[in-house]
Amino acid sequence: MKSIQPVVSKMLVSSINKERISHAYLLHGQRGTGKKYLAILLAKSIFCKHQERAEPCNTCRDCQRIDSGNHPDFHWIEPDGASIKKEQILHLQKEFTYTGMESNRKVYIVSDAEKMTTNASNRLLKFLEEPSMDTTAILLTENSQAILPTIQSRCQLISLRPLNNKQLIEKLEQEGLTEANAKIFAAVTNDLNEALEKSKDEWFANARKIVVQLVEMLQTNPNEVLLFIHTQWMPHFKERPQAQQGLDLLLLWFKDMVYYHIDQKEQMVFSYHYDKIEKAAMHWSKKHATDNLSHIMDAKRKLEQNVHPQLVMEQLTLHFQR
Do residues 37 and 191 make contact, with C-beta atoms less than 8 angstroms apart? Predict the structure, then answer.
């Protein structure tokens, strides 16, 4: 059972081989720790008729139908809007009163389990209190403290650790990214899938270019910076989450500048722009670069407080020019 959580995978493999599958699991971990991936692997291992040492084949009819969400004895529940509602759990219970379509085994996954309403949680609790030997529940959450203690007590709790930066870079390189690009995406997110998506995202590629252009303009043509903000930056970073991503990239650039000043160049993220960082480090001293990091963090807080993004960027660039 290969995953980004080898220790947990090994434990689950051992349980499956010994036929000691728990009736309920609670997978807890930050976004990007592989909860969904691990849950689907576990479901496949339960249904796959061609598994080898608990490793699903990923090619049989059962495995493929789980991937497509069309397996009749595999059910996936996720928030309907902002929450998981009582009616969704009632529907699940109704489905589980029927005999399995192809075997007596049934598996259900509850994604974002912390978003269950109180009524939904209580219905699920009653479901868990009378477990069937042939039913496996897999609950996924980023916040196990938000799950009823009585539900937790009926589940095997599995805590998933996030990949450290080095591990994530290695995984990204295994997926075909260059070391330089892997460093950037690992710095932007600790979610392997999100990093891979960003690596193929044209918008994000252009965002990186615009950040570099802004820094260069601050050094060489400061009188045109506000025009650049109006004509280039704002049209690209239209939405507030996009504006936050732009500031995150800007933050990484000035961190690289500080790393250059303190001679920790191996820590630099924009390593393929080394000559430009070197030039920027001649323009901004270590103190100025550090001050600019504080100004960027302040700009991020203002965005969270719903200050207009254009005003935030105008104020930020004025700070850079002082």
Answer: no
Rounded to an integer, what distance in angstroms lies between the CA atom of residue 32 and that of residue 167? Answer: 13
Cβ neighbours around 10 below 10 Å, total: 13
Could you give the CA distance from residue 116 to residue 128 in angstroms, rounded to a whole number? Answer: 15
Q: Is 269 exposed, middle or buried (0-12, 13-18, 19+ CB in 10 A)?
A: buried
Sheet holding 74-77, edge to edge: 74-77, 106-110, 135-141, 24-28, 156-159
Alpha carbons 246 and 255: distance in angstroms, whole number: 14
Task: Give the number of other Cβ atoms within 10 Å of residue 169's Cβ.
Answer: 21
Residue 17 pLDDT: 66
Instruction: Please write the tens of the pLDDT for every residue from 162-201.
Output: 777 888 898 899 889 999 999 999 998 877 778 888 999 9
Q: Are 55 and 26 in contact (CB under 8 A)?
A: no
Q: How crowded is residue 122: how many other Cβ atoms within 10 Å of its Cβ?
A: 16
pTM: 0.60
Q: Domains of the chain (ranges plus CATH)?
A: 6-159 (3.40.50.300), 201-321 (1.20.272)
The letter for the amino acid at 235 is: P
Question: Is a pLDDT exceeding 50 seen at residue 2?
Answer: no
At 77-106, the pLDDT tens digits run 999 988 999 999 999 888 877 665 666 788
